[in-house]
Design brief:
- The chain is mainly α.
- It has 20 helices and two strands.
- A two-stranded antiparallel ribbon has the order 1-2.
- Helix 14 runs antiparallel to helix 16.
- The chain is globular, with a radius of gyration of 21 Å.
Length: about 500
């Protein structure tokens, strides 16, 4: 499969963003078409991909020769599954925001253009093999995200609070990016290249204090993006104040760039520093797992509850990455995909219910099953997925993370498993409070069941959760060869 397919992959949403901004009355159709083109290209890449072939569909062109920077693209198994996650979720999110992007909306073109711009930059981050190009898109995606967070609120959001949370998001991530910039410059000074493949072939800096500082610079930026406790505080407010499709874009897609980059850059470019710092990062990840679960139990706002569950799940992903075993890293990559699908299903279902009821408070629901059994069933399935029920996708990935972590850090693995009990508490208790019992008059008057467009959005996500639960092998067949070099480096 020859041709500039990786360029076309990210260019499709980029061109769609420009077209949506230029023709706002047709923005939602333009956006959906562009997202579907990217999805078709992604599926084509998946069918042509050789799991044992390393980086594939390589493109390399000179860009800034004096700095050793180039336009370099390549796709491995880890990048492939995250490309498919991104490309598959974007049409779903645009359909979920269909009413917000209606032609009569003055900002329809802006919303679609910003969303597609984020997709385009995320796709570049998953396929680039140039460290400088990765850094540029890693930082540039903050701009459209800031305007999405600040300009498009969800039910019950306050414009002043929303602006504050958007600024907080921007400042946190800019601070991480500035520290990473210093590390990127140091990496070039030490190696003379930004080419990831050349760095992996031996040009990367050797062990010592320099490698340690570069590792910490990269890690800090990725830990903010992921987010890792205690750098997570921007996430709950941002997820609650914006609309559900934008929150899913941020938590299910953009935040994966941070965890992906930990695996792609931190562990491979700085293996000795990663080995020394791994226990400390794992400790922070375990704290995040426990902290997110406990805070989720105490939430009265359903959107805030889902945001805190994501902090707990990101802890699992990061724990698996830094355990540095084959099972743990394969499980972490698969967890990124499963978390994206499960969070999208849970957040979008909650968003529909909140929009109907006009309130995010769990206590304002109750007995909603009698009015919305389809939404109740989807919410329950998505909730059970977040607590890793066997048969649903997250179970396989969480099992791999725990099994792979146990030989290295038994206590961390045991604590992580115990936290699943807390997950059952917040998921089932929330479901009980929102859907069981007699329906109050306000719920009877305002809540109704899923409509055809909403089912078109939610049902594919539920199907994906079952497919990933019962048939994870295709994804794992692509992931395992891509993480094996990291495992081999750890063994060395």
């Amino acid at each position: 499969m020859s041709g500039p397919w990786l360029t076309l992959l990210w260019a499709a949403p980029a061109v769609g963003a420009v077209a949506a901004a230029a023709v706002p009355r047709a923005a939602r159709w333009i956006g959906l078409a562009a997202a579907l083109v990217a999805l078709v290209i992604g599926i084509g890449l998946a069918f042509a991909f050789d799991p044992a072939g390393g980086f594939q569909f390589i493109e390399s062109h000179s860009w800034i020769p004096s700095f050793g920077a180039g336009y370099r693209l390549g796709l491995d198994g880890t990048g492939l599954v995250l490309v498919l996650l991104t490309a598959a979720l974007l049409p779903v999110l645009l359909l979920a925001a269909w009413r917000e992007t209606a032609p009569e909306s003055a900002r329809a073109g802006t919303y679609v253009a910003l969303t597609l711009a984020v997709e385009s930059m995320v796709l570049v981050s998953f396929v680039t093999t140039d460290v400088l190009l990765f850094y540029l898109v890693f930082e540039a995606m903050l701009i459209p995200l800031y305007f999405l967070l600040a300009g498009f609120g969800g039910t019950g959001s306050d414009s002043a609070v929303r602006t504050h949370t958007a600024v907080k998001f921007l400042l946190y991530n800019l601070a991480g990016g500035l520290i990473m910039l210093a590390a990127v410059v140091a990496l070039y000074a030490a190696s003379g290249t930004f080419d990831l493949r050349a760095l992996l072939d031996g040009a990367r800096p050797g062990p010592g204090i320099g490698q340690d500082l570069m590792f910490l610079g990269f890690l800090f930026a990725f830990a903010v993006k992921a987010p890792l406790w205690p750098l997570h505080t921007w996430l709950p407010g941002a997820a609650v104040q914006t609309n559900p499709p934008t929150a899913v874009l941020m938590m299910a897609i953009v935040d994966k760039v941070g965890t992906f980059a930990m695996l792609r850059y931190c562990l491979t470019l700085f293996p000795d520093a990663a080995a020394r710092c791994a226990p400390w990062v794992a400790a922070l990840a375990v704290i995040g797992i426990v902290y997110g679960a406990i805070l989720a139990i105490g939430q009265s706002d359903v959107m805030s509850l889902i945001a805190y569950t994501s902090i707990s799940h990101f802890g699992f992903i990061i724990l698996g990455v830094f355990a540095r075993t084959g099972d743990s890293q394969a499980g972490s990559v698969l967890y990124m995909v499963n978390h994206g699908v499960a969070t999208a299903a849970l957040f979008l279902t909650a968003g529909v219910l909140v929009a109907r009821r006009g309130s995010r408070q769990i206590g304002d629901f109750g007995g909603a099953w009698s009015r919305a059994p389809k939404l109740g069933a989807i919410f329950l399935i998505a909730g059970l997925a977040t607590l890793s029920l066997p048969g649903l996708g997250p179970f396989v990935s969480e099992l791999l993370v725990v099994v792979g972590t146990y030989p290295r850090w038994a206590l961390a693995a045991i604590v992580s498993v115990v936290v699943l009990v807390l997950s059952a508490m917040y998921v089932l208790w929330t479901y009980q409070r929102m859907f069981t019992g007699p329906a109050p008059e306000d719920v009877e008057r305002t809540v109704d069941d899923a409509r055809p467009r909403e089912l078109l959005v939610l049902v594919p996500l539920v199907v994906a959760l079952f497919l990933l639960g019962f048939f994870p092998s295709p994804a794992l067949d692509a992931i395992n060869p891509s993480v094996s070099p990291t495992v081999a480096e750890v063994a060395r």
